Amino acid sequence: MKSISSTITTKKPTKKITHLLTEEQKILQATFDLRETPQKYDTDYASINVPFDESIIKKVKKIIIEKQKLSIDSLVVIGIGGSNLGTLAIHQALNGLLYNDQNKIPSIYFADTTDPHYLTQLITILENKLKNHKNILLNIVTKSGSTVETLTNFHILIELLKKYQLDYKKYIVVTTDQNSSLDQWAQHEDITCLHVPALVGGRYSVFSEVGLFPLGFIGIDIEHLHTGARDAVEAALKKENDVIKGALAIYHAYQDGLIIHDLFIFALELEGLGKWYRQLSGESLGKPLKDNPQTRCILTPTLSIGSVDLHSVTQLYLGGLPPTFTTFIGIQQWNKTIKIQKDKTLTSLNNTIQGKTVNEIMDAIFYGTIAAYKKQKKQFTIFMLPQINEYSLGYLMQTFMIQMMYLGKLCNVNPFNQPQVELYKKETKRILTHA
Amino acid sequence: MKSISSTITTKKPTKKITHLLTEEQKILQATFDLRETPQKYDTDYASINVPFDESIIKKVKKIIIEKQKLSIDSLVVIGIGGSNLGTLAIHQALNGLLYNDQNKIPSIYFADTTDPHYLTQLITILENKLKNHKNILLNIVTKSGSTVETLTNFHILIELLKKYQLDYKKYIVVTTDQNSSLDQWAQHEDITCLHVPALVGGRYSVFSEVGLFPLGFIGIDIEHLHTGARDAVEAALKKENDVIKGALAIYHAYQDGLIIHDLFIFALELEGLGKWYRQLSGESLGKPLKDNPQTRCILTPTLSIGSVDLHSVTQLYLGGLPPTFTTFIGIQQWNKTIKIQKDKTLTSLNNTIQGKTVNEIMDAIFYGTIAAYKKQKKQFTIFMLPQINEYSLGYLMQTFMIQMMYLGKLCNVNPFNQPQVELYKKETKRILTHA
After folding, report:
1. What digits encode the pLDDT tens for the residues A374-398?
2. A39 within some domain
3. Is A283 annotated as catalytic?
4. Model confidence at B225, in pLDDT bands (50, 70, 90)?
5. Do A214 and A294 meet the contact criterion of CB atoms below 8 Å apart?
6. Which of B316, B340, B354, B385 to mutate to test the interface with A (most CBs of A within 10 A)?
7. Are residues B143 and B130 in the same domain?
8. Residues A294 and A358 in one domain
């Protein structure tokens, strides 16, 4: 990716830190060097091999072709967190926020939490389609096979499907770990099943079967996603690269007390990407330290969207000056250009915008914001995305995933587990069992 | 509102703090006691009189009836920040996230920032409607009349309108300050114009012409919004009330070093409400102190949505334990109930959910999360919304607005201005002028 990455934090890493990163890079390289066909997935770092695994694309494409024969009108992705955030991020980035409003086929819907209002609306829409003899495809995604929200939504939607399709089993694709109870059920019912490599965790799984099946099904070029991700892996393993520099910038800022890391993205349709990143960071870093569980890593990811949030939280960032390090993401070249025509009847309103393009306005706001951050001496980094396309997104998301592994090492936490998530699950289960 | 507000922070306010709040309450009472018809809007606190101003509803309703005669297919709200966040919040809360997907009439679209990709999609959709002889109505909302994003979008969309409607001026409603350049333009062009009371700032304006016109136009009961808001004003002015208790809880936590305030809402369709609150807090509190500009108020609002973010940032909140105070919002009674049928073929998946309602699952997750927060000794408050309806939303949003005034007093900042937002505007203007 031709990326401008201008790191303002210029601290030189100490010997100790350089050593930590060399160590981590060696582990990554070892994992990477093992790649062959079929890929090996025997370490926590295994996700870096996913984009090199041609068997995934092959498997996924085969099922896509098979299910396309059913002339599907709508795809419903049932999954939560790591099981749907990456898919949602890439879909919104490439197809925009008004994709369904344009009556594109297949339309796509997401069912993540168990909100009765949202679910009621979704059921109404889907039932209406089924009544009109349109076909829907359910893709249920859960690594463990036991996520309560996902199973709840699946129960509700499978029941709807059964009402209208005698051969309903053809209209389901399950994505889960091999031998999970869901996998066993799918085998027993003769339902199509995709398996996620066991050691590829939810938040690192977007380029596996988890993301590629639904994305490929709605026509996104999944090969280009992989190409971008592959190039990012190779770049991240070079000595002194932008991924390491980015991780160091965040880490140094955190050591200096900037405990909030704000991803400030200047593109509406990348809000989903921001939410994906927030999960990646929150679950990877926010936990007790490996060798000192009394101490915690509290680096807190937040998300702002430009220019909307200039009218929302920028007063706080520039006036309150909270302990925030910012990573700006800008778009170098938009896929669309819209010109503001000159119009005499409107000149009294604002004469600086007439004759310009909307793209120029957006750029001016972006660079105006950065100038204001500089004047207030805020610490930040800039990522310029050359264009919003499959290659760039593959590159950027893979970069962030590897950066998180480096940050895990720097912060002295295990970036692959999420032990405290079990706390609420345990309490929820207790309530459900006694209800 | 029958609200359970269980404040865990139990610190007793000191004499000094009690005095501060008494002082602020007196100002609010004085503003409130002045209410008469027409309402007086001569202080910064004036927004508390808005829900008592029957002339607003009257004016707005007259224009709604007039414009409904044009058989409008789609309403486009053009505005950013305080000009659209409240409208978006209430629309999403009541109509749900899949309103447009259900082909309801009028459909509603929002144009806030100047994102070329989003705008291109919006233009395609609207042009398609216009070509098919469907009518659209533009509601441009900007208090100052000069917001660059809003004027850019207005230029682009008015041009589209002109292409298809000879009498395009009928299809525009302007909402702005009296005598702004936009107001003067509207008068000159003979375009319908609604005026916002000058001292009612953007983030406090949702129950004025700003929010009521678009909300009333799409069929939301704006009288009930006002009733709820009125009851909240009256409750907030009583001695020792929940609004003051809530403000004190947040303030005490902030004094104890909990600089992040997370609004954790357990309802998908209230994400917009959370974004509205984030703006309300960010712009009201994040700034230099009144009598000591070297010191800043850094209280940082964040937003989490349950149960989605249990799979995202809850690991951080429960494992990293960042300095976060949480306000939970739960729904006491959902407007919809969905039952999970018992199904033998699915029993191998999860037998604790069969036969339950989706509502019970959502409740179990909500209370399970609170139990986990308690076990990790996190500080939090709970707001239970009796139901998602106009009255509750009016009550809750007005409560939050008054709470922000009390917080401004406690934190020693002016909760009504946003001086540092000018910093980026100045830089953007410089770039646009020299481009």
Report:
1. 999 999 999 999 999 999 999 999 9
2. no
3. yes
4. very high
5. no
6. B316
7. yes
8. yes
